[in-house]
Amino acid sequence: MRFAGKVAVVTGSGRKGGLGESIARRLSEEGAKLVISDIGGSRDAATPDAMIGGTAEMQDIAASLPTQASTFACDVRDPAQVAALADHAITTHGSLDIWVNNAGIGYIMKPLGEVSPDDWRAVIDVNLTGAWFGLQAAAERMIKQGRGGRIVNIASQAAKSGFPHAQAYTASKHGLVGLVRSASIELGPEGITVNNVCPNHVTTGLGKWQNEHFAELQGISVEEYLKRMAGRIPMGRPGLPQDTASAVAFLCSDEAAYITGESMNVSGGEEPH
């Protein structure tokens, strides 16, 4: 029960079987009170219902956790909504100790020449600017509380290497590396650590879509695509949601109190730098 008495916010945690749910569940199982947050419903063409966590699904996830949990719909592209999410954690559960920026767009994948300005902005606005809004809101409240805190971004293997059809995604995740390197310097004296977790491919609902998308592009079956993927991973398999959740739990724990500004690979050895 490493997180008994702690309150955690996990953005993008409203889809069953997703990384956000797995992270929230792991923190809850170790004692944290949770705020399950997702966009709640489609807001525009960049946030289709099939790819986001809806209000009912958020509520189902919160109800299934072993500790006290609430839900809060938030579009991370709006700093006012992100600030309201942080305030909700404090007014509802009593504090804000852990903030996980997990919300992201990983489903706008197009050849370089087909990426529109709207596509680019949608991905950067959620994956990078949204994480910045979350970091800023969480840090402000953690500093005021005066007892430190933990901020973790879910980056990606794409924070370290490039991938075709993922220009905006890769740029946004690389940006998170610079963000934590800078923020950790300022927040270290406050006892707040800021880190990234960089998983390789995980077959969540989004991951399933990615499997089908890239298998089709290569003219192979999904089974063959996954076989080739496993073949280049030293551990012989793609990542699992619990692999990422375990890394987040470690970085949020007292055991990681002296780790900040890092971008931790969770890739089965596929991404060694």
TrEMBL record:
InterPro entries: NAD(P)-bd_dom_sf, Sc_DH/Rdtase_CS, SDR_fam. GO terms for molecular function: oxidoreductase activity. Coiled coil: none annotated. It comes from the Bacteria. Keywords: Oxidoreductase. Belongs to the short-chain dehydrogenases/reductases (SDR) family. This is Oxidoreductase.
